[in-house]
Amino acid sequence: MNLWRQGGALFAMLLLTAAARAASLDIKPGLWETTHTVESSGTPPLDTGRLTPEQKARIEAMVKKREAEGPRTRTFKECLTKEKLEHEPFSGPEDEAQTCVSSVTTHTPRRLQGKRVCTLGQNKKEVAFDIDALSPEQVKGSIRTSLSDPRHTMTSHATFTSRWLGSDCGNQK
After folding, report:
1. Exposed (0-12), middle (13-18) or buried (19+): which is 141, by Cβ within 10 Å?
2. Which residues of 41-54 are buried (b: 16+ CB within 10 A; e: fewer)?
3. Per-residue confidence in pLDDT tens, the chain, 173 aa
4. What pTM was computed for the model?
């Protein structure tokens, strides 16, 4: 559930990190500003057996509200450091208990495309990404995610644009 709470913001942030991590993708390290738009549909995979009827109703109401609101846009800044570049794109702490397979289908100085699929029992997480380095200081891309179990599937589509603000990140992390 933690992954769902973070939603598209996490994936858009990881997209930029994944773009820079790819050593041959021609972009600069430093402070980046990213604007992303995310649209989601469906119900996240949850073990509802332990939830009260009121908790289940709240989750259903949140899903309906999110779908009715439509796409959500957010802008944030992130420092792209050497340490961040060394991590596996699209991985997180929740991936450690899962079996994950990553594949990159296109990897050039201007483009990175690929997919990451993780499974844990009957739960599955799929992330497909397409990133274009328009210049060393501009990146755009999209990501499609799907989280599912035998009863529920939640999908999201995010698009993003990022621009390099400078090599000094100041106090930005």
Report:
1. buried
2. ebbbbbeeeeeeee
3. 333 333 444 444 455 555 545 445 788 888 999 999 999 888 777 777 778 889 888 887 887 887 788 898 999 998 886 666 555 444 455 555 668 888 888 888 899 899 989 888 888 989 999 989 999 999 999 999 999 988 889 899 999 999 999 999 988 87
4. 0.74
Q: Which residues partner with 138 through β-bridges?
A: 135, 163
Q: Which DSSP helix (H) or strand (E) runs through 13?
A: helix 2-21
Contact 159, 142 (CB under 8 A): yes
In the structure encoding, which two tokens stand for residue 95, read together?
């991936």
Torsion angle of C-alpha atoms 30, 166, 173, 160, degrees rounded to 10: -80
- What is the spatial distance between Cα 145 and Cα 118, in angstroms, rounded to a whole number? 11
Tell me the Cα Rg of the chain.
17
Sorted by where each begins, the domain ranges of the chain are 2-166
> What tokens appear for 87 in the block?
């991590």
**Residue 158 three-state SS:** strand
Residue among 11, 24, 49 nearest 126 (CA): 11
In the chain, what's the furthest Cα-to-Cα distance? 52
Is there a contact between 129 and 140 (Cβ–Cβ < 8 Å)? no
